[in-house]
Amino acid sequence: MTATTGLRVADRMRLIGTESAFEVSARARALEAEGRSIIHLQIGEPDFDTPAHVREAAKRALDEGATHYAPFPGIPALREAIASDVTTRKGAPADPSQVFVTVGGKGVMLYAILGLIDPGDEVIVPDPGYPIYESLTGFVGAVAVPIPIRMEHDFRLDVDELASLITPKTRMLILNSPANPTGGVLTRGDITRIAELALEHDLWVLSDEIYGRILYDHAEHVSIAALPGMAERTIILDGFSKTFAMTGWRLGYAVVPHALIPVFSQLVINTISCAPTFVQVGAVEALVGPQDDVEAMLVEFKARRDLVVAGLNEIPGVRCANPVGAFYAFPRISGTGLDGAVLADRLLREAGVCVLAGTAFGGVGTDHIRISYANSRENLTEALGRIGRFVEGLDRG
Ligand SMILES: Cc1ncc(COP(=O)(O)O)c(C=O)c1O
């Protein structure tokens, strides 16, 4: 690989992938700059403001001098609040010493994969799934083995199929429930059987629980770390971006087994030194302060989900299951005669609706698009109208 100057960049840059949402957003913004009207349904972030009491706490912290380095694993008040929240809400007893505050939940992915995976190891990743799992796995020279997640199976992985993918080289299993991009949620029965496999084959589990509180229809969030024997082999990834509408604050956390405290310590010290100090003070308030804004956000998300699922299912050739978590719909669109990549591209250019192709999340999503309903009901209604008119106007020959 050669940079434009002729100077070489590292060979390993050939191994890294990307998250196409960022590139697609740039394309959409370029069209807007030309005067086009675009409705953004590609973005994986709540459109709500961060709760006012959280903003106030961070502002106060700035004025009171929380502008210096923090301890590398996080400020004690936040590690305590996280440990207590994880213990009560997830049912996975956690000690503050096991908590590492990171820059975004994404940081936890980096540390877990850098710290635990060697070249040639296999890591089982959901397909469709968050693209960074596969990207970072490849970056360290390991092999990402996709476990298919299908609409016919309520967007839950099939545990028998998972068992068939485990080999002597499998080192880690990455779970994401509730899931991006499908909104699928693993059941307690699924998680119990997955835990049995992890114990039998001695696997690490990276459990991405970033959407753990964004649930509908009485769906239950089960953290695999809460199951017997699993706390010693599970890294919990969670954070503030989604639950508290804090994407721009860049704050996530890991809860790691005691044995991994030295590994995470070294990786945090070598990369970020610590997460921003005043941001951490705001996050304490997010966890221990009033939760009304989170509740209100969930009520609104549910109304939007109902609107989007009903609207999509009225469009000929589109079939959308009812997601019970996160804020994404992942309709199958093959009945339109197009695949997801072509439909996403044409919706952006011809209908002014920006969505992501299912293939942005792996090969299994070829016939799907991902719609983020983190947008107003008014915009969602307008977008559904635009998608419907575009699809009806397609010449299916
Ligand atoms: C499944 C999943 N995990 C982790 C993240 C990263 O979140 P952040 O780095 O903002 O905490 C995202 C963001 O879209 C996600 O969808």
Topology overview:
Layout: H1 20-33, E1 39-40, H2 52-63, H3 76-90, E2 99-102, H4 104-116, E3 122-127, H5 131-139, E4 143-148, H6 159-165, E5 170-176, H7 188-201, E6 204-208, E7 234-239, E8 252-255, H8 261-271, H9 277-288, H10 292-313, E9 328-329, H11 340-351, E10 353-354, E11 356-357, E12 369-372, H12 377-392
Bound molecules: pyridoxal-5'-phosphate.
Pyridoxal-5'-phosphate binds at residues 44, 104-106, 130, 176, 180, 208, 210, 239, 241, 247, 252.
Notes on the structure:
This protein is α/β, with parallel strands linked by helices and 397 residues long. It folds into two domains: 11-49 and 292-392, Aspartate Aminotransferase, domain 1 (Alpha-Beta Complex), CATH 3.90.1150; 67-288, Type I PLP-dependent aspartate aminotransferase-like (Major domain) (Aspartate Aminotransferase, domain 2), CATH 3.40.640. It has twelve helices and twelve strands. The protein has helices spanning 20-33, 52-63, 76-90, 104-116, 131-139, 159-165, 188-201, 261-271, 277-288, 292-313, 340-351, 377-392, and strands spanning 39-40, 99-102, 122-127, 143-148, 170-176, 204-208, 234-239, 252-255, 328-329, 353-354, 356-357, 369-372. The strands form three sheets. The protein has a seven-stranded mixed sheet with strand order 2-8-7-6-5-3-4, with helices on both faces. Strands 9-12-11 form a three-stranded antiparallel sheet. Strands 1-10 form a two-stranded parallel sheet. β5, α7 (188-201) and β6 (204-208) form a beta-alpha-beta unit. α2 runs antiparallel to α9 and α4 crosses α8. It is globular, with a radius of gyration of 21 Å.
